[in-house]
Amino acid sequence: MRIGILTSGGDCPGINATIRGVCKTAINHYGMEVYGIHSGFRGLIDNDINPLTEKDLSGLLNLGGTILGTSREKPFKKKSMGNKPSLILENIRNLQLDCVVCIGGNGTQKTAYKLSQLGVNVVSVPKTIDNDIWGTDMSFGFDSAVTIATDAIDRLHSTASSHQRVMVIEVMGHKAGWIALYSGMAGGGDVILLPEIPYNIRNIGNTIIERLKKGKPYSIVVVAEGIQTADGKKAAEYIAQEIEYETGFETRETVLGYIQRGGSPTPFDRNLATRMGGHATEMIANGQFGRMVALKGSQISSIPLEDVAGKLKLVDENHDLIVQGKRMGICFG
Ligand code: F6P
């Protein structure tokens, strides 16, 4: 068999480990040929595709980013579609690719589904720091982002307590609060704001004032980038301003940004990526197309792309970390 592999959407730690897992398994175990498709779906449109050998797959396990490059190209987007789908089909046919492996987030899963509806054999792998892909308990990249964000929160603690300030830190996550919840709890945040839970600035202010009364004259506020703000202001900027106004406390903000997406994956993400990559190749060998690899509990399985496409996995407000956090006095809004 001859397979093509692409990476699409925002990058994250663990993509290269997945490429390695897919391709090494394909070459070593199944005797398949592997082609690297560059810059996501754009490479399929422009025929920017070349064979990958074992040498290309060395040194990838701990390497951040993606050796194939990525883009947010959406070939089925009505406005800019033109003849992109037919170019894609032509290039896949000419190269005689038996399957295309699509590694990506929500947008990628949607495009992969549309591609499979055109008759292309597709297997996809969920990838995002946001952890918001429907049908998988976790995507690789998430643990790395949470580790980086937790380290940042740890560091803000010491400067917050030295200066007796409120520190607001904004973390990524798009429309979901997974990174804020996991890093906020692991970093000992006092207030954690998620897009899934509406907040009241009075409650937040009271939490901070109560802490002062208990002899804790500083607070850490972790906010997800996707929370609602007035006038479309950036999350941290808005919340810091409102807290200062509400409490009179000196407040500073930090936007962690792309640092959460860069660099080396954690050991957990390396192993998750390796497992998901290997399973993707096993699915190809078994002819299980039109499906996304998924983590369910501690097992790797798969789910039809039509069940994934267009859905978002958001944080449930009854998530155990929220329930336990509230009992401990952490304010969730
Ligand atoms: O999906 C990953 C992510 O980093 C989100 O957390 C963030 O909202 C978005 O991508 C940023 O997108 P871009 O790379 O287009 O700036």
Structural account:
The chain has 333 residues and is α/β, with parallel strands linked by helices. The protein has two domains: 2-141 and 265-308, Rossmann fold (3-Layer(aba) Sandwich); 145-261, Phosphofructokinase domain (Rossmann fold), CATH 3.40.50.460. The chain is 40% helix and 17% strand. It is built from eleven helices and eleven strands. Strands 3-2-1-4-5-10-11 form a seven-stranded mixed beta sheet, sandwiched between helices. Strands 7-8-6-9 form a four-stranded parallel beta sheet, sandwiched between helices. Strand 7, helix 7 and strand 8 (219-224) form a beta-alpha-beta unit. The longest helix has 22 residues, at 142-163. It is elongated and about 70 Å long. The structure holds 6-O-phosphono-beta-D-fructofuranose. Residues 10, 105, 128-130, 172-174, 225, 261 line the site of 6-O-phosphono-beta-D-fructofuranose.
Can I get a quick summary?
By secondary structure, this protein is α/β, with parallel strands linked by helices. It has helices spanning 15-29, 41-46, 84-95, 106-117, 142-163, 178-186, 201-213, 235-247, 267-285, 305-308, 320-327; strands at 2-8, 33-37, 49-51, 99-104, 122-126, 166-171, 191-193, 219-224, 251-255, 291-296, 299-304. α1 crosses α9 (267-285) and α5 (142-163) packs across α6 (178-186).
**Which CATH architecture of the largest domain would you pick?**
3-Layer(aba) Sandwich
- Helical region count? 11
Low-confidence stretches: none
The hetero compounds bound to this protein are: 6-O-phosphono-beta-D-fructofuranose
User: Largest beta sheet: what is the strand line-up?
Assistant: 3-2-1-4-5-10-11
Q: What structural class results from the helix and strand content? A: alpha/beta
Mean pLDDT: 97
Describe the global form.
elongated
Q: Evaluate the radius of gyration.
A: 22 Å
Secondary-structure element series? EHEHEHEHEHEHEHEHEHEEHH
- In the CATH hierarchy, the third-tier topology of the largest domain is known as Rossmann fold
Percent helix: 25-40%
Strand composition percent? 15-25%
- Biggest pleated sheet: 7 strands, mixed
Straight-line N-to-C gap: 53 Å
